[in-house]
Amino acid sequence: PKLEYLLTETRGRVALVTLHRPKALNALCNGLFVELNQVLKDFDNNKDIGSIVITGSERAFAAGADIKEMKDRQFIENYVEDFLGHWTQITKIRKPIIAAVNGFALGGGCELAMMCDIIYAGDKAVFGQPEIKLGTIPGAGGTQRLVKAVGKSKAMEMCLTGSVNLTAQEAEAAGLVSKVYPAEQVLDEAIKTASKIANLSTPVVQMVKDAINQSFEMPLQAGLTFERRLFHSTFASNDQKEGMGAFAEKRKPNFTNN
Ligand code: HXC
């Protein structure tokens, strides 16, 4: 089916998804998110894909949820329909997702980036949670994931003022972003990293993502036990035999994802 708000392509085992609603700075309207969930699910189920990169334009990764689309909504319909609840489907994607962020990552745009597994930022990127200025609050992790990424004081300052944003450099220093590159390089670098990941054992890669995500949900002992069991289970894979065997034989491993 033809996509209205996204561009998709594959580069080897990497899937690239570009948010493409240029006239609205990639504001995340319902149609865009429905498409995003669908293409991510398709790539997640595609054996030829090992990792995913999400990017926007040079001006905007995404300037937030679509304000014009939501401004007249009412509480009861929001509650009954679980308005924007479907955004969390991204967190169910099991292959790693790298966000390559240039320009504005505001509100839901910042939250979308935070639902990805790794964030690379272009040097002009801006991260912020301006919802309070619209008379509302973040609704997809801005008061939760942001705290875990940058700590309480910065998260409070960003969400309470709506106007204190993080530059790419500040976001890197705070730990929200793992690397900053010149704007025109960030996508290539994201694809390079995604490609490294995609050429490792995909099931084992998925176990790493699963285990790290469990660290946000579980008490330490339960998380460590979960990790140990997954570690044990990798020994049932051909890829563990291949990886360790190749090391012992001083050659490159050839993973077959089983
Ligand atoms: C709808 C948006 C939009 C948005 C930009 N546009 N952001 N439309 N929803 N979030 C549209 C503008 O209306 C305008 O359309 C066009 O994109 C270009 O934007 P400008 O404002 O003209 O650009 P500029 O002057 O460069 O300012 C850029 C900006 C500003 C600072 C990013 O657009 C802005 O403040 N946007 C809103 C940011 C925001 O508040 N995000 C949080 C949304 S709430 P026209 O047709 O006029 O040309 C949210 C809740 C998440 O995200 C909840 C998740 C569950």
From TrEMBL:
<comment type="similarity">
    <text>Belongs to the enoyl-CoA hydratase/isomerase family.</text>
</comment>
<keyword id="KW-0456">Lyase</keyword>
<dbReference type="InterPro" id="IPR001753">
    <property type="entry name" value="Enoyl-CoA_hydra/iso"/>
</dbReference>
<keyword id="KW-0276">Fatty acid metabolism</keyword>
<dbReference type="InterPro" id="IPR014748">
    <property type="entry name" value="Enoyl-CoA_hydra_C"/>
</dbReference>
<protein>
    <recommendedName>
        <fullName>Probable enoyl-CoA hydratase, mitochondrial</fullName>
        <ecNumber>4.2.1.17</ecNumber>
    </recommendedName>
</protein>
<dbReference type="GO" id="GO:0005739">
    <property type="term" value="C:mitochondrion"/>
</dbReference>
<dbReference type="GO" id="GO:0006635">
    <property type="term" value="P:fatty acid beta-oxidation"/>
</dbReference>
<dbReference type="InterPro" id="IPR029045">
    <property type="entry name" value="ClpP/crotonase-like_dom_sf"/>
</dbReference>
<dbReference type="GO" id="GO:0004300">
    <property type="term" value="F:enoyl-CoA hydratase activity"/>
</dbReference>
<keyword id="KW-0443">Lipid metabolism</keyword>
<dbReference type="InterPro" id="IPR018376">
    <property type="entry name" value="Enoyl-CoA_hyd/isom_CS"/>
</dbReference>
<dbReference type="Pfam" id="PF00378">
    <property type="entry name" value="ECH_1"/>
</dbReference>
